[in-house]
Amino acid sequence: MVSSQTNADTWLIIPLFNEATVVQAVIEEARVTFPNIVCVDDGSSDDSVAEALAGGAVVLRHPINLGQGAALQTGIEFARMQPGAEYFVTFDSDGQHRVEDALAMVERLRAEPYDVIVGSRFLDGRTKAGALKRFVLRLAVLFERLSTGVRLTDAHNGLRAFNKRSAMAFDIQQNRMAHASEIVAQIGQHHLRYAEQPVHILYTDYSRSKGQSLWNSVNILSELFIK
Amino acid sequence: MIDQIVIKALLIGAFVVIALILLRPGGSARTQAIRTITLLALLAAAVCAVLFPGVVNDLAQAVGVGRGTDLLLYAFIVVFIANALTAVRKRRAQDAQITKLARQIALRSAEHPDERV
Description:
The complex is a heterodimer. Chain A is α/β, with parallel strands linked by helices. Chain A has helices spanning about 1-5, 25-30, 50-55, 70-80, 100-110, 130-150, 165-170, 180-190, 205-210, 215-225; strands at about 10-15, 35-40, 60, 85-90, 115-120, 160-165, 195-200. Chain A has a 7-stranded mixed sheet, sandwiched between helices. Chain A starts with a helix and ends with a helix. The relative contact order of chain B is 0.09.
């Protein structure tokens, strides 16, 4: 099948917020493998939109900043109505995800009976994160298992691949940080068949400099519980 | 301690009622009506308190609180918490609407790389 070789049936969904320095390179590299990329600009104040267009992505612009979860949902809604779209990948704009991991996940969706493949940093020992960060992520995993019944080893991995059934099912309401937990919950609610894929996160100096503060775990919990 | 049991029961009861109201899906005609009635009752009570300050004191003693000011403070805290929680809920609903609106705008104005070249 031609489509499976060129991935013309696959859309990369990249939330974008003030990543002008790296986003063009990230998109150009990804486009070698995935020709269809939609960037959802979440009200960036820098040149992110121009850089993303220069990289060759379709760009959707939120007129105001809504948060990464909202950007993902916008991207999913756009991608799932594109003709021929069968597979979808959520990908980071700062270069911390590897294209070969994304490709391997899409290949698994084609070959195996799963609706969602979620990346995990902890299935093998490649990813190096600090001890405290690992501890907090473990806690998050435990919390998710108890609250959603979905068993994953990495609660907040942004690299996910899913098919059209999942794309139609996902309806992310948590605009900000809590969306990762919400996606896991929706995998459970819709009885999507899921599996995990070991992925490598590139904690570059760049991504570390802006990375997710551990304080966010408090914010995530409050977003989840105070409706 | 036993003499304060009445005010304790009243306060806890008030918090439970607030919690129940918050847990119900909001916006129904009944919730709205209850909110209006409560507000009117509060205003009426405020007018009474101004006209007959002694009544507040008597009422406080009836429920086991020493002074009328204390009773007013408790009532104020209950109303304040209820107000804060409903404000949060309203803001969340508003955020959801704004999100939908912004998403529609984004989806309608997709920019394609080819158009720029």
